[in-house]
Amino acid sequence: MGIGYIVLKWAIIIGVAGYLYELGIWSNWYILFVPLIGLILFRFIKRVFLKKAHFLGYRKSFYTMLKHYYPEHYRSLYHQTEKRFEEISKDVSFAATSKNPMDKRLDFCAFFLGLIQVLEKNGESYPQIKAIAIGIAEDYVRPKNRIQAYVKKLPVKLIGTAPGKFLVGKLNKRIQTKGHEDGFKAHIVTDKKETFGLGYGINISECGICKLFLKHGASEYSPILCEVDKITTRLAGLEMIRTGTIATGADICDFRYRKI
Fold first, then answer.
1. In the chain, N or C terminus with fewer CB closer than 10 Å?
2. pLDDT per position as a tens digit, 58-67
3. Closest by alpha carbon to 259, among 198, 201, 192, 199?
4. Are 136 and 225 in contact (CB under 8 A)?
5. Which pLDDT score is estimated for 25?
6. How many distinct structural domains can be found in the chain?
């Protein structure tokens, strides 16, 4: 994106400058407009790029799974989901600027909630909705190549190192502070005795997903999102040990991990 932006910006500037020069009306003062041209062009490229990347991200997995389960009317279900998401997304708009990085996942969860409510409205059973949701999660987080597979396991390799401890410390400070009343709050556990020797665990005391689902009358579905954690943990080369979740009535979600 960066390289494309630079090349396109200067191609336009040089092209316009050359044309004005040929007409005999070029002035070096026009160079002052370069920052403005760059800003307009950057906003255009960013909008186009992010829109495409957004669909090719988690939304592609939703589209793919709906096509698999409902080959005759998947487009209609997907568009219904998008429409419902537009309504729900207003409640998680804070996530984009939240200082708590855990809140960033709420956009993804809001789209999930939109799909769940659309499927429920269309008469689907809880087991079917759960199967579709888990299928979407697996499709989305599954490594598409060896590089992605390595990157998913990299954090585990860094945990015991000096850079890893530094990053964990920085992350801990950020997730302990609520970015919004409807967001997450958590803290990292580093005591090896409490973390099966790994030196890394997480206690979530406030769950933004549960708050979102509760607000929209869908609390019974929030445990489905808890299942996604098992998938991502396995891909990182870890086994997750969790005694309870807020979604199922526990006071905290106690994430503990053990190397496979």
1. C
2. 889 999 999 9
3. 198
4. no
5. 78
6. 2
Separation CA 116–CA 219 (nearest Å):
11
Burial class (CB in 10 A: 0-12, 13-18, 19+), 38: middle
Distances (CA, A) of 17 to 65, 123, 144: 50, 62, 44
**Spatial separation of the C-alpha atoms in residues 197 and 238, rounded to whole Å:** 12
Between the alpha carbon of residue 10 and those of residues 4, 6, 39, the distances in Å are 10, 6, 12
The alpha helices in 24-105, defined as continuous H runs, are 34-54, 60-69, 74-88
pLDDT at residue 132 greater than cutoff 60: yes
Q: What is the pTM of this model?
A: 0.77
pLDDT of residue 23 exceeding 80? no
| CA-closest candidate to residue 209, choices 103, 72, 133, 137 | 103
* Pairwise CA distance, residues 247 & 133, whole Å: 16
- Tell me the residue type at 83: K
Residue 169 included in any domain: yes
Does 229 lie in the same domain as 199? yes
For residue 211, what are the domain limits?
70-259
Q: Which two tokens stand for residue 211?
A: 């708050």
Share above pLDDT 90 across residues of the chain, in percent, rounded to a whole number:
65
CA atoms of 77 and 132, how far apart (whole Å): 13
